[in-house]
Amino acid sequence: MDAAKNKYSIIVPTYNERLNIALIVYLIFKHLRDVDFEIIVVDDGSPDGTQEVVKHLQRLYGEDRILLRPRAKKLGLGTAYIHGLKHVSGNFVVIMDADLSHHPKYLPSFIKKQLETGASIVTGTRYVTGGGVHGWNLMRKLTSRGANVLAQTLLWPGVSDLTGSFRLYKKSVLEDVISSCVSKGYVFQMEMIVRASRKGYHIEEVPITFVDRVFGSSKLGGSEIVEYLKGLIYLMITT
């Protein structure tokens, strides 16, 4: 299938990303010059003025290219994707973070991989040759790596990076997978890829370098780690 015949809807959940959203939008436009795409910003009532920045970007790039679909308050990552999915017009959907940890320069590689393989899902991975992490201290690297190794051992998902959140889906596949997920927050991405693997969908990987957020503070804390472990046990029982 030719990329020119496809449309890619990029869902970007935001909360207090005023300092990042303009740059991420600029970089998406820079790296997808010859691709039909739209950006759907799902903002959870950011008090820092994120929505005002997005409205300015709409005036600059066009409301048909940047869609602002806000929610009243912070309701979680999984429901943000569900909300954004209601508004997509493309046949492929990209999910990525707004904090610059997912560089848009990898998007052409995702699209190319999908076109070459016919994959239902292309996911970015930090844990193959060519991938990596920049800006994390040793403890966080060990925590992330350990979480993935533990999940690999217990769940056998067939992918190397379970907790990554930079992915390209066929729209129909995302709709199917997301409808069967019940997790919230940090563990949501893991459940998504495990469910997709169990359903037999074709998954390919592209190496990426994850960069710790440039502006703002990380939203990962002790409660998310506990949630991850609970989610791991849940998936062991139910998949």
UniProtKB/TrEMBL annotation:
Coiled coil: none
Keyword Translocase annotated: no
EC code: 2.4.1.83
Keywords associated with the record: Endoplasmic reticulum, Glycosyltransferase, Transferase
Gene Ontology cellular component list: endoplasmic reticulum membrane
Main location: endoplasmic reticulum
Highest taxon in the source lineage: Eukaryota
Reaction(s) catalysed (UniProt annotation): a di-trans,poly-cis-dolichyl phosphate + GDP-alpha-D-mannose = a di-trans,poly-cis-dolichyl beta-D-mannosyl phosphate + GDP
Subunit note: Component of the dolichol-phosphate mannose (DPM) synthase complex.
Protein name, as recorded: Dolichol-phosphate mannosyltransferase subunit 1
